[in-house]
Amino acid sequence: LKGNGALSCFLPEMDAIYFEGQRLRADLRQALRDKQLTVVYQPMYLPDGSAVESCEALVRWTHPQKGPIAPNIFVPLAEDMGIVSEISRYVMDQACRDCASWPEPVAVSVNLSVHDLRSADVVGWVTEALEEHKLPAQRLHVEVTESFFMDDPAAVCTILERLRSIGVTISIDDFGTGFSSLSYLDSLPLDIVKIDRAFVRDIGMQSKRMKLLRGIVQLTRELGLTVVLEGVETKQQLALINKYGLADVIQGYVFSAPVSPTELVTLLSENSVRKEAVGGAG
Ligand code: C2E
Ligand code: MG
Ligand code: MG
Ligand code: MG
């Protein structure tokens, strides 16, 4: 599989996996051409569940033969193929268009790949999407993961600063799962920290996990950043989080799974929405 001179033993299954992978790559290119990708939205709520604050755009791919393929599979594949920015631009465009029809000031949160942040073009296409759909930048959040650390933090920082200067809110996604270096929290232009669901999963009243979570939340707030907890699934987790006041915003199945754009419009018309924007540079 790799021409690196390592001891190679060809198993028929390896060939099969290889060809399957090549096939999926070709299919993904086709999917981009044929617009097989769609976007769903997961609402994020105030901790008491009383209002929707923002919604995360999540890309979906239904393969014509294989059915739904998880973004955890095809997004890394697109990154490897060097075409992930095509996905990002597509999702950004849909997200800005959809958000412009939601009640104010509900924001949309779009995931960017670290590859998008390698080129200053991103500032251009984000601006284009905002202008085309007449969405104020204050209603756009972008999510980036800690993996930028494997890249060039200084270059990423410059691009994030430019996005922020036009009014876009910057979130750090899956916080605590990457390199987990705390040093960038005060040096990067950030507004929101989305703490990974790994920190929420096993919280019990006296657990070490709970102590860890409380520590991270306190630190984040000391730095003036908004705290989002991801992956809150149960009423018990929610009760503990609220008992200790650990979240500004909550995302998870306990309130809502990701829904289609149409379902979201219904959901937003039935729910109240947060009156003031959370976080944000603007
Ligand atoms: P993420 O950005 O951290 O998104 C949150 C993921 O957690 C979503 O999975 C969501 O459906 C799932 N989730 C939400 N609430 C819960 C919960 O209560 N419990 C559990 N167990 N899971 C929950 P999804 O949609 O499969 O996306 C997986 C990852 O794929 C995303 O993680 C993100 O890293 C990536 N991704 C999704 N859409 C995009 C996109 O448009 N662009 C890029 N670059 N990456 C994307
Ligand atoms: Mg995300
Ligand atoms: Mg996340
Ligand atoms: Mg904002």
In short:
With 282 residues, this protein is of the alpha/beta class. 40% of the residues lie in helices and 20% in strands. The model has no long low-confidence stretch (mean pLDDT 90).
The set of bound ligands, ions and cofactors reads: ligand C2E, magnesium ion
Strand count: 10
Main beta-sheet annotation: 10 strands, mixed
Work out the radius of gyration. 20 Å
Euclidean distance between termini CA atoms? 50 Å
Structure description:
With 282 residues, the protein is of the alpha/beta class. Helices cover 40% and strands 20% of the residues. It has helices spanning 12-34, 71-81, 84-99, 121-132, 153-165, 198-201, 208-222, 235-243, 261-270; strands spanning 37-45, 51-63, 67-69, 107-111, 140-145, 169-175, 192-195, 226-229, 249-250, 272-273. Strands 1, 2, 3, 4, 5, 6, 7, 8, 9 and 10 form a ten-stranded mixed β-sheet that branches. α4 links the parallel β4 and β5. The longest helix is centred in the first third of the chain and has 23 residues, at 12-34. The protein is globular. The chain starts with 11 loop residues before the first helix and ends in a 9-residue tail after the last strand. The model has no long low-confidence stretch (mean pLDDT 90). The structure holds ligand C2E and magnesium ion (3 copies).
Task: Summarize the topology.
Layout: H1 12-34, E1 37-45, E2 51-63, E3 67-69, H2 71-81, H3 84-99, E4 107-111, H4 121-132, E5 140-145, H5 153-165, E6 169-175, E7 192-195, H6 198-201, H7 208-222, E8 226-229, H8 235-243, E9 249-250, H9 261-270, E10 272-273
Parallel strand pairs: 2-4, 2-10, 4-5, 5-6, 6-7, 7-8, 8-9
Antiparallel strand pairs: 1-2, 2-3
Helix pairs in contact: 3-4
Bound molecules: ligand C2E and magnesium ion (3 copies).
One magnesium ion binds next to loops.
